[in-house]
Amino acid sequence: MFLPILTAHPPAHNCVALFGLIVSLWITEAIPFFCTAMLIPIVAVPLRIIADPQTHEVATSSVASVIILGKVMDHVQILVLGGLTIGKALSRTNLEAYAATALFRLTAHRPALYLLGVMLMSSVLCAFVSNVAAPLLVLGVIQQTLWEFPEDTEAPHGILLGLAFACNIGGMLSPIASPQNAVAMSVLRFRNVSFAAWVAVALPIVLFSIIAAWAIILVVWKPFKDVKGIPLQVVSTEPGKNPSVADRVFVVVVSLITVILWVISPEVLFGDTGVVALIPIVVFFGTGILAKEDFNTLSWHLMFLLAGGNMLGLCAHDSKMLDIFANNLHETLHSQSPYLTLVLIIAVVALVTTFVSHTVTAMILLPIIAKIGFLLPTQEGIFAVTPETLVVLSALMCSGAMAFPISSFPNVNSLLAEDSSGRPYLKAKDFLFCGTLITLLFFLCLITWMVPLAYAVLDGLQ
User: Fold this and answer.
1) Predicted pLDDT of residue 179
2) Domain presence at residue 204
3) Which residues form the Citrate transporter-like domain (predicted)?
């Protein structure tokens, strides 16, 4: 509050103070994560950060409270709730146990390959159901296996880090793999960037990054140094609740229909994937596959943690904090060479998305980055930079920052995973070293061999 940062813009200045407080509490874990998230409106409203949507001036406390509390639930959280419900249904019918057993049969004798299998499965799934739903589904598959490890081993920690990093990386794979990719496609809507072109650009860096992240986890964490094999997940059911084959088939069919609807992006029919996510909720609870007790035991703390990200994003937008940052960036880079502009922009994106939600950063920065790209002079050569190259690589960098749990939902999902006693496996600091290494390596790839690759693929669109 008392540091001379953005003092000419009081709402932005106060927003910087709010971010400092919330990030500090999340890093130090002084209070539970969801409590920190719920602290945001308590601090933001008195600081007069929120803007009135009618006047665009600072809102009164009564108006600001309505606006910020309206961000507690949105379509992304409904999507997550749908993923949680599918995961709960898979668990109730023991289907996730059979999936885990199949993975076990292929890789159990070599734990490192098991980790790689989990990471590859996660990244591929992200391409079709987004890296919001995918980590929930995969965690449901491997949860029981994690519980079977001895308490003194680092194996669950390594697997959960692998899951988080793989879902971040998998979020680059297609235009629907993450919200930030959707933002990028929106700002490039007049440039004819196709689904196939995006995949062609992203696939090489995704494969490279998965292998690199897997190797970094094995070298840094050594998660399997005391483990000779992956423990077999025992398929068991609660007394009196042995699921029938019909129930299992029903769960699979409904889940597949939901996933297919997510993949084909049914905006015309349903308007949003969040509405599609309500289908398994209504069907599974309505038909008795899941009970009221199952609904009450969903990860509601996760919902409120995501609400914290929504509210922080609102504060950053309404206070003009990131707008000021982005405009200053535009003015600073205007006189630089196109390639240096690309390097500096991707560096800034990497820094900001380390501390701010990937999606929030994309929503604020990518439109500004696109404007910078459209002002670039025409170039030739393997390191030529076009608007498409600049925006797509910046969007990929949004997913590539993963040093803190607050950076992305996949990180949050792994952070909140608990052992059979209800204790979390990971702490916030566990992401820092491996996540920073992967982020730096990814950054170096984007500003070197990915530039000519992106130009070669995307330049053919013009």
Assistant:
1) 82
2) yes
3) 25-392
**Structural domain contains residue 266:** yes
pLDDT of residue 265: 60
| Structural domains of the chain, count | 1
Please indicate, yes or no, if residue 227 is contained in any of the structural domains. yes
Q: Is there a contact between 43 and 61 (Cβ–Cβ < 8 Å)?
A: no
Task: Tell me, yes or no, whether 351 lies in a domain.
Answer: no
Domain that holds residue 174: 75-296
- The contacts of residue 7 (CB under 8 Å, 6+ apart) are 13
Q: What is the value of pTM for the model shown?
A: 0.73
Residue pLDDT, tens place only, 237-292: 554 457 788 888 999 999 888 878 876 765 667 877 778 889 999 999 999 999 99
